[in-house]
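G., the chain you wanted modeled:
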Amino acid sequence: MKLRDLLIPVSALLSACSYLPEMPDMPEIPYIDKLFAEKNAYYVDAKELEELQLPPGMSTAKVDDLYVLPPKVEGQLAIGDEVLRPNPIVTADAEQFVRVQALDGESWIVVELSTGQAWPRVRGFFEGNRLPLQQADGRLGTLETNWLMSKTNEELVERYQIEILPGVQANTAEIHVQQKSADRQSMETVELNWATPSDSEERERWMVMEIANFLAQDSGAASVSLLAAGISEVSRVKLVDDGRYPAYVELQLPFNRAWAGMGLALKKADFLVDDQDRSQGRYYVTYQPKPSEEEEEKGFWAGLFSSSDEQPEYFGEKFQVVVKPLRDGVVTIELLSERDGFPEDIRRTMLERIKSNIS
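Predicted structure as tokens:
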């Protein structure tokens, strides 16, 4: 069982909608299929307009091109022998701004935003696409749509509930989607139980991907909603080091998800998984740190003439990573060296690195 982690490409903006014609004794229900029109080719019909002319007495200081091309620079920009490089566009490990994860038929979004920042963006997805909302509670971080209808089956209607939760890491949020279906004739009397799984995993996944694509293209500066102040911002992972026992990680996730996500976290933390035993909650790993950026920049010739025995410190050390349930919805993660006398400060640093890569 693996936790799938997908990156979200930037896609076309989602907008436009159409509605059913009025029918006798039946409420008007939006066609959900028509709410997401493709705009990929809109630029083909775009026309260049004359420069904006303001009335006399008004300043044009705030009117400027969005992207200003710098003047041509002759020669090479450098300080001494070092060529200046542009700052990287991506700043964190963001394995990008938006990710979609899936486990046991459920899909959810992980976004590099606090819950207070994620709330107005998710709500903006529904408002911008004119998806009618039955309720929106910023304190609980939940949104619920009205009944929507798909053109693929006009006899069925569906509703969605979106829940925004704090992510595993600080300043991240998770967005979970639930989907419920009903017969159009009985939709007014059906009782919805949002605590049970979605009626259609396919439709749940579809809505997850639509929201994720919207968030991926809206990855600029984020505002914070005061209405969402009630949503918890507490990180769900922490390093426990009280001095009585060796340091360990406490993670507020059920065992299934914690176990499934550990493989990816170990890989990002430079551990090679040699074997695993889920029944015992153990990963058998080898520490294999990658060369630093400085070492990689030495290039092919430096590597060719350097000693093949040179390896990063503690390269090849063997460990066991133990995942154990602590209580309902909470597990502990221990890093055990297979060598007696392994430095505790180094083990703690390695454990911290694993903790920082859990998602």
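The longest helix spans residues 201-217.

Shout if anything looks off.
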